[in-house]
Design goal:
single chain; Arc Repressor Mutant, subunit A; two-stranded antiparallel ribbon; 8 helices; globular
């Protein structure tokens, strides 16, 4: 059985709700990179297609699901702008509702009892992976996620012929704003915290 849009959005909601670390909430870029890392590193079957982009792996499908979730009040997306006119997207659960509230999904789009049960089952089935992900990556900055997700993307596409030198070279080529030390540090963090290079 393939994953549904509702299950993907339930996963997004789970991350938004559980990411909060001392009022540091999850932003759009981190959420989208988190969905990639969950899929490619933790093997949560989200079935998104990714390509490398300006800030790391990018999926038009994940962006579409996030925008749909925001439009239909499954997630709140607050847009703020800094003095340089850069937009920032702060994500939260609407009206303080929590994911485990049985009356949660009373929004513009009503989910059936079957859909709600499918979402619960999907999250339960992957709860260990979601919790492991949060334990390793909760509180990381957007810049760190950009680097982690880029390394995972490159590694997973060239597993057999990939070394630390390849990572340094390829990441530096597509992400010149990262210095060698940052790339090495991110590589070491992934190596010691995950099973990526096993």
């Amino acid at each position: 059985m393939s994953v549904t849009t509702n299950q993907r959005i339930a996963t997004m909601r789970y991350l938004v709700e559980n990411y909060d670390e001392k009022e540091k909430r999850l932003g759009k870029t981190i959420l989208l990179k988190s969905m990639f890392v969950l899929q490619d590193l933790f093997e949560v079957p989200l079935d998104y297609s990714y390509q490398i982009y300006l800030y790391g792996p990018y999926s038009a499908g994940a962006v579409r699901d996030l925008e749909w979730a925001s439009y239909n009040d499954f997630l709140d997306m607050l847009v703020t702008r800094d003095r340089n006119y850069n937009n920032f997207y702060d994500l939260s659960i609407p009206d303080g509702e929590r994911l485990n509230n049985p009356n949660l999904l009373k929004f513009k789009v009503e989910l059936t009892k079957v859909e709600q049960k499918e979402n619960e089952d999907f999250l339960y089935e992957h709860k260990d992976k979601l919790e492991s992900f949060l334990k390793i990556f909760r509180g990381k900055a957007t810049r760190e996620f950009e680097l982690y997700s880029t390394i995972v993307f490159l590694y997973n596409r060239k597993k057999d012929e990939f070394s630390i030198y390849d990572i340094l070279s390829e990441v530096k080529e597509i992400k010149p704003h990262f210095d060698e030390e940052e790339i090495k540090t991110a590589y070491e963090y992934l190596k010691t915290s995950t099973h990526l290079f096993d």
